[in-house]
Amino acid sequence: MLFIIGGKEVALKSIGDLELRSGKILKDVKIAYHTYGKLNPSADNALIICHALTGDHYPGRFGKIKGWWDSLIGPGKVIDPGRYFIVCSNVLGGCYGTTGPSSIDPDTQAPYAMNFPVVEFADTVRGQVRLARQLGIKKIHAVLGGSMGGLQVLEWGMQEEIPVQKLIVMAASPKSSPFVIAFHEIQRQAIMLDPDWRGGEYYGREIPSAGLSVARMVANLSYRSEPSLTAKFGRKPAWRTGVAEDPYQSFEQRFDVQSYMNYQGDALVHRFDPNSYLYLTKAVDLFDISRGRKDLEEAMASLQGDLYCLSINTDLLFPPHEIVEMVRLRRKAGKPAEYYEMNSIHGHDAFLIEFPIIEPVVKEWLD
After folding, report:
1. Mutual orientation of helices 209-223 and 274-286 as an angle, nearest 10°?
2. In terms of domains, do 155 and 185 share one?
3. Does residue 284 form part of some domain?
4. The domain containing residue 161 runs over which residues?
5. Given the residues 259, 315, 344, 349, the one annotated as active site
6. 190, 235: one domain
7. Could you tell me if 171 and 186 lie in one domain?
8. What is the C-alpha to C-alpha distance for residues 325 and 173, in angstroms, rounded to an integer?
9. How many alpha carbons lie under 13 Å from residue 28 in its C-beta half-sphere?
């Protein structure tokens, strides 16, 4: 099925009812997705791309619009649709077409809002596996993703319905730390304290735009590093209105970094559902790949496929030492694991920025 969402033509697949890890049943689940390339006769050239928190299912070019991994995906690039059948889907709980809080609850014929059940990435991947089967995929060459996408990659390693040859995890750890959870709680409170949130019942009314904007600003700070902000902005005055501001003369006038943070917050308001933001940050907080197993060592030994991990030396959210430990335990179990630490001033977001560094690493791992 094809629908128009946010001005884009979106493919939707219905995967039926989905039993969640919580035991609840999510009825008539639909998944929005996009593909590049074609599935080969053996149905084993698939690449699954998993997106980050506010990303969508268009990692490569869509018409004239560049995707968030456009430098990596396309003819002649590292992830070449002439070689791979590339699939990316919007996560469960999202707001770009896949069933989420803004979707209509079949039982009430009203948006789920905060009646949407808590979802985990194990649930998301269970849905992605059903989608892959409907697309005719029999074996997956690699699953790739960064940040929240990397958490999904690890869950792909835990499922056993479709064989996966390679797991490529970028800027993601085997479980979310208290530091990550704390940052997310501040962001959620910003949304929920906005008077327009109304307990999540804002559909058809004014959205809690101020709260979502502040949440995004807090998030954006955690995605970068002090050296990154210093290099980009220093103490320059803002100029985005067309006239240089003077923060020394008026309280309302700003430094450029303030203007940038406000821009980032305002931009998200126009493209993301606040309730989805609540549910997806909650899903990140709940993530622990060892849940349901004895410990992390047993979990890492259980992953199917070869493991490839990329960390970023300035990453505040998923620092290298957490990823190094994951690789160490994988190797201790006698399983293949490769590790690359990227040096970048850009912090967590470097996996969306440092393409000249990432490209040869991903190419080597895919080959």
Report:
1. 40
2. no
3. no
4. 2-175+289-366
5. 315
6. yes
7. no
8. 9
9. 6
pTM as predicted: 0.95
Nearest 5°: CA angle at 191, between 128 and 66? 50
pLDDT tens track for 336-350: 999 999 999 999 999
Place of tokens 């995906």: 73
Domain membership of residue 342 (yes or no) is: yes
Which of 251, 279, 307 terminates a domain? The answer is: 279
Residue 162 sits in the same domain as residue 45: yes
- Between β-strands 306-312 and 164-170, what pairing exists: parallel, antiparallel or unpaired? parallel
CB atoms within 10 A of CB 307: 23
User: What is the CATH number for 264?
Assistant: 1.10.1740.110
Q: Tell whether 133 and 35 lie within a shared domain.
A: yes
Contacts of 341 (CB under 8 A, 6+ apart): 310, 311, 312, 313, 320
pLDDT tens-digit readout, 100-157: 999 999 999 999 999 999 999 999 999 999 999 999 999 999 999 999 999 999 999 9
147 is annotated as an active-site residue: yes
Q: Residue written as tokens 């998200």? A: 268
Q: Is 146 within the bounds of a domain?
A: yes
Same domain, 100 and 244: no
How many domains does the structure of the chain reveal? 2
Please enumerate in sequence order all residues whose Cβ is within 8 A of that of 6, keeping only pairs 6 or more positions apart, or say none.
Answer: 96, 271
Active site annotation includes 315: yes
Hey, what amino acid is at 298? E
Per the annotation, the verdict on 173 as an active-site residue is no
Query: Are residues 34 and 88 in contact, defined by beta-carbon separation less than 8 angstroms?
Result: yes
Which listed residue (71, 89, 103, 147) is catalytic?
147
Contacts of 121 (CB under 8 A, 6+ apart): 91, 148, 151, 152, 155, 283, 287
In eight-state DSSP terms, residue 62 is B
